[in-house]
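FAQ: What does the model actually see?

It sees only this:
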Amino acid sequence: MAHGMSLHIGLNRVDPAKYGGWDGKLNACENDARDMEEIARTTGFDDRTILLTAEATVDSVTAKLREAARTLTADDILLLTYSGHGGQVPDRNGPEDEPDRLDETLVLYDREFIDDELYKELEGFAEGVRISVYFDCCHSETAVRAVRNLLTSDAMEDQYQTRDPDRIEVTSRVMPPDTQHETYERDQTLYDTIQRDLRPKDSLDLSAGVLLISACADNQLAADGWENGLFTGTLREVWNEGKFTGGHKSFHREILRRMPPNQSPGLFVTGRANSVFLRQRPFTV
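And it is asked to produce this:
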């Protein structure tokens, strides 16, 4: 019988001492983590971990990923969910890794976790392991300007709980561009060293099959909310307490159909090809 492990990360703030005084306050990320853990519980994941805010450090996240890599074997599954801010740092470990010369990050409590670091952890999983990832965050600083120009005041209030375009950065899940730049400049040696010690993610050989559904396109913003992030809340509606019966592609399509046009969740598959995994009902152990 297959074994299911899950890790659910939700940060309503970060350590301001590590981010130049910025606390990254959000409303619904801890709720997202709890609600995704509840889905994991009801679908048979018997080994579940929640890391909330101050618990969600780089060391605690990597420790749980390495435990999962040691534990899971072929046909087992890891469910990884993250709700919080996304950021970017300059790409320092390969001209072909990122066309825009930026690496995406998850903004954890004590520092940014670079996507190359995440992919390095995923490289440690055995062949045949299924890894299902849901990220309710965004990374693109250019999207802040786009949303300001695109949305009416009513639409901004509906999605971002504000009618003030200058507050979009506060009520979306992107690390403010000024904070991104200041954090990188202050800790440039740390982030550059991390990247230079890793192979770029596009050159890694993943034996596991990885399926990611993300909250929005690369040039869009993911909205926070009062109870859930817009993406996680919509996912929960589509899942409908387990009444959804389709595969991952139809799950993604139905979430996408219910989202506003300025937030379009993406589906991305990498690692060892696993068409059976793609056709499976989401959260299948």
